[in-house]
Amino acid sequence: MEALLTKKQEQLEKAIERYNQDNEILSSKKTQYDSLITKVKAQQRELEASRKRTTEEVERLKEDEMNKVRKEKKALEQRQKNFQLVSTTAKKEREEIDNLRRDFNKYKAENELKAKKQKSTIELLTKQNNELKQKNKELGEDLKAMEQQRIILERSGPNTIVNTLNRSTTNPTKAHQSRYSFSSG
Q: N or C: which terminal CB in the chain sees fewer CB atoms within 10 Å?
């Protein structure tokens, strides 16, 4: 009778030890999960701040360039009017008018080039923003899936956790199905 009690006591101690090990594994996985969530949220905040800074910088540069172009254009137009009023045909004046026209055309070409560059930059930033939104959506879906797995594992008890962990370590081909999953089953 005492041997039977000792055997039962050993079985209970082993079961308690298995339960404690499973509990430690689950706690470790939860810590990893929480760490991933924290990293994802930090990356999302950083990404949003970076996008906002970039957009603000592009807008500021665009406004600065437009102001410069307006001032230059106004100055050139004023010079052209002044030269048109003077009807002298002196060689110096004609050369200066030609130089001003060349400068005007140069500034106009530079402005068009800058506008094209700004447009391509905005398109690139829009594309990156859309890609980052998609990645954010995927990470959110992964997060939901991991949370559901965690809840299922918590509800199913320690034996299921051990079985699930054993299946995930014996069948690595299914492990790629979910990027951050605790199990593959």
A: N
Is 183 within 8 Å of 153 (Cβ atoms)?
yes
Please report, for the chain, the start and end positions of each structural domain, with discontinuous segments joined by +: 13-148
Q: Which residue in 134, 129, 138 sits closest to 53, CA to CA?
A: 129
| Alpha helices, DSSP H, located in the chain | 2-85, 91-156, 158-170
pTM for this model (two decimals): 0.32
110 residue type, one letter: E
Question: What pLDDT, in 10s, does the model give residues 19-31?
Answer: 999 999 999 999 9
Distance CA 53, CA 34 (A): 28
Q: The dihedral of CA 82, 86, 92, 95: what is its sign? A: positive
For 51, the token pair is: 């996008």
